[in-house]
Amino acid sequence: MSTASYTPPRHPLPPPPPSRGRSRAAAKRRPVARESGGALAFVVAAAATLVCAAPGLAVIGMAIGAKGEMDATAWKLLGDALLGTITLIALGGAAATVIGAGAAFLVSLCRFPGRGVFEWLLAAPLAAPAYVLAFGYSSLTWAGGPVPLPLTGIAGAAFVYALAFYPYAYLSTRAALATQSAGALEAARMLGAGPRRALIGVALPLARPGIAAGAALIAMEIAADFGAASHFGATTVTTGLFRAWYAHGEPAVALRLASVLLIAAFGLLFVERWMRGRARIAGGTWRAPPKVKLSAPAGLAAAMFCGLIIALAFAAPLGWLARLAATRPASDFDELGRQLLNSFMLAGIGAAATLLVSIAIAAAARASQAGRAALFAASAGYAAPGAAIALGALALFGAAREMGLVGGLSAGLAVFMLVWTYASRFAAAGAQPIEAGLLRITPSHTGAARLLGAGRMRRILAIDLPMAAPSAAAAALIVFVEILKELPATLILRPFDFDTLAVIAYSYASDERLAQSAAPALMVTAAGLVPILLFTRRIDTARPGTRMGGR
Amino acid sequence: MAALEPQTWSRRGVLLGAGALAACGPAQRTAGKAGAAGGHVNVYTARHYDADKQIYALFKERTGIEVRALASNGDQLIERLRAEGEATEADLVVTVDAGVLWRLTEAGLLQGVTSPTLEAAAPARFHDPQGRWWAFSKRYRVIVYKKGAVDPAELASMDALTTPRFARQICARTSSNTYNLSMLAARIERDGRAKALAWARAVRGNFARDPQGSDTDQIKAVAAGECQAAIVNHYYFLRLKASGDAAERAIADEVGVVFPDQAGAGAHVNISGAGVSTYAKRKAAAVQLLEFFFTPEAQRAFQELNEEFPVRPDAELIPTLAEFGRFREEQVAFDALGRNQPEAAKVFEEAGWK
Predict the structure, then answer these.
(1) Of A447, A545, B104, B168, whose CB count within 10 A is highest?
(2) Above 80 in pLDDT, residue A368?
(3) What's B110's domain CATH number?
(4) What's the predicted TM-score (pTM) here?
(5) A315-332, pLDDT tens digit by residue?
(6) Structurally, how many domains does chain B consist of?
(7) Architecture of domain A36-323+333-541
(8) Torsion sign over Cα A47, A52, A58, A63
(9) A398–B contact, CB cutoff 8 A
């Protein structure tokens, strides 16, 4: 499997004997031979998995227990829905991955006019929710809009997904390129490899875990999206789920579709693992990779490629929405400040809680087999539609209430349930990049730490986590912005008189008041931009041994 | 809008949300009871309209009772109410579409209430016989057509959309849309499944393109000449007509509106309605708010801000609505819309209407 151009020594030290849970003091006295923290890692992994997987498991449980037969129409719906989702992942997902990874390679490894600006501008579209792009593009291109284009059905949804989701591949590929050893590329050059050979033979294999993690995130985002698919009239597993739920009044079919998504998510993760293969990257220096100066025509082409992406994914649809927002009276904007505050509050609490769970899972995954299983199990929630996970959480709440453990869904409990649902949905989005970052920690780091007598937990805290800081920054950014954009769970689980920007934007848009929804939609995008720009800078500046941000 | 004060609880939300699960339930429940004395009422609503916010503000002005709202999708609110059971904080449940009202009633989530005010305001057909739901506003599913290309006389009935005259000339939104489902559910009730299927299949055969977008998008497509006719709710046309955007007003000028089936069943009508939650903690205030929806000022606000028709027969119509003239409406019982919706979804699926 491994296509790395050189194979690092896998085990510079003999494998350690199984852990016996010795204290740190004992471990210090007898370096190398003793491990500690295996049991703790297991407990952490189990707890994090339970937090993440419980709502999804509740959905699968309800699907199994639900009454109602699958008749011919239901089977047909299931078939159409699967076909639609697979087609969209194949078209939109592939395009998003190619665009994102391609752009990341350009700005990380090449020098061309405008590179410094494009480097951070290319991450900006991450702040724009897919449904906002869908509304913007339909208003731009459908009847009555200024740019007639046949953006409908599967093709329209795939187009929007490619633009909305490419930043996942862009960020994770860039994180991989930014933190990997510049030495490998320099060595390749000193050995006489031209830029092309260095790219294909060295940089690409080194970035593969990052690209694969990005592609998996994109595929799961596409599988879970409701807003854009339903607006373009594309039948997917998620739109089919809502059709079965609302229209047919058949929770059994809806829950089974949700289960299909959860199981499909496992499949996707498996593919991602398989793509990543056994590649392990060794290398210890933390320098920016050497950049190749592009010739004038090539540089111009690169700049145009990056500019076109930003124009299509950001400037055109959002500029059009801004024009729509300008037709509204100023009174429309009165409440936006408070809704912005609400959005930030929920996203802040949610991202903090989710990141904790993500780190626990990623660290446990590195420490033990059980942890790896935990990462796998926890990841399924990401591909499931938020509404299905919210349903699962509601069902768990209902069960707890009937057992007398909790009372009504008060404001505090509602926020707690929301944060839980966020953690369940997005822990994978956080854990994936963190784990990809941890993969770059070499056996020699670990070996040196063990020679110095560091136990397993200490190695996780003192080496693994600091070294994964750039990836953790990317994870925090992705989760925070995800929660800013999140809709279905926020809609159903939020407390009274508590509107977020995403909720308001969606409510107006679903009521076909696009001009009124434009301002909050632009605000949610702007709100996401701040952390994105902040964090993308820090991905570059973060170095091991410094605090994140490198101050 | 006024009357929304989340600061107090949002701070509490931060603390409790971050921490103790067990402690917050009872704490909040006590707060709820104290609040009832101070005068507020909790509303779960599928209507996130500015009209409703204005009515809540008016209600507070008139009665001193503050309305706290949670706006979400109707079917998701049903699931939340189910999970909350007797612990729910919801007092009044407000929604659009007769189907959702029927599902709420079937799930036992609404209790019967009545009062002389309600009885006097809502004709018998517009409330549940046991008082579990009361409809306060109406919307019609009408046909919009391209002026110049179509003579409105050609569209006197919804059946006209099935004729060869409109081959490849019909635009429609997807069949999972509630308004389409309720419309077909009413047709199933009137004509039976077989005829409803034949109608849906024939209309589908006349599609100019695959279903996509919203009702407003259908109107824009008709105006642009992508098709000659489409089925939409009446108020989307009125909104374009009154839009602050000149381009949208120009679109409304391109299309005409027909209230179909005046010689037959009447134009399809759907309702917005509300009911008191089975486990309402502030039942009196909930009934008071429900009654308030039928006051002349509220019935006027539904018209002015949301272009909906009032349910009160004696309510005065605003000029934009009065311009449509008098017309007949379909007389199918509203609970049939909910009962037949699952069947309607299957019929659409069989007809190939995406």
Answers:
(1) B104
(2) no
(3) 3.40.190.10
(4) 0.82
(5) 999 999 999 898 888 887
(6) 2
(7) Orthogonal Bundle (1.10)
(8) negative
(9) yes
Indicate whether B61 and B124 sit together in one domain: yes
How close, in Å, is residue B120 to chain A by CA atoms? 31
- For A362-458, strand residue ranges (E) read none
Of all residues in chain B, what percent carry a pLDDT higher than 90?
A: 79
Residue A129 pLDDT exceeds 50:
yes
B173/B90 same-domain check = no
Of B17, B27, B84, which has the smallest distance from its Cβ to A349's Cβ? B17
Q: Is the pLDDT of residue B169 over 60?
A: yes
User: Would you state the pLDDT for residue A458?
Assistant: 82
Is pLDDT larger for residue B105 or for residue A206?
A: B105
In whole angstroms, what is the distance from residue A110 CA to residue A289 CA?
A: 10
Whether B281 and chain A come into contact, CB under 8 Å, resolves to no
* C-alpha dist (Å) from residue A50 to A160, A224, B177: 34, 21, 36
Helix axes A153-179, A130-141, angle to 10 degrees: 130
**Contact yes or no for B210 and A152 at CB 8 A:** yes
**Which residue of chain A has the CA closest to B343?**
A248
- The Cα of B30 is separated from the nearest Cα of chain A by a number of Å equal to 10
What is the pLDDT confidence band of residue A252, given thresholds at 50, 70 and 90? Answer: low
Same domain, B179 and B154: yes
* Cβ neighbours of B16 in A, within 8 Å: 410-413, 415-416
Q: Taking residues B301-311, report their average pLDDT.
A: 95
Chain A residues near residue B239 by CB distance under 8 angstroms = 512-513
User: Residue A272: what pLDDT?
Assistant: 67
* ipTM of the modeled complex: 0.81
- Structural domain boundaries, residue B108: 40-138+269-322
Q: Would you list the DSSP string of B260-311?
A: --TTTT-BEEEEEEEEEETT-SSHHHHHHHHHHTTSHHHHHHHHHHH-PEES
Q: Specify the amino acid at residue A366.
A: R
Residues B260 and B148 in one domain: yes
The single-letter code of the amino acid at A375 is: L
* pLDDT higher than threshold 50 for residue A7: no
> What is the DSSP annotation of A378-415?
HHHHHHS-HHHHHHHHHHHHHHHHHTTS--S--HHHHH
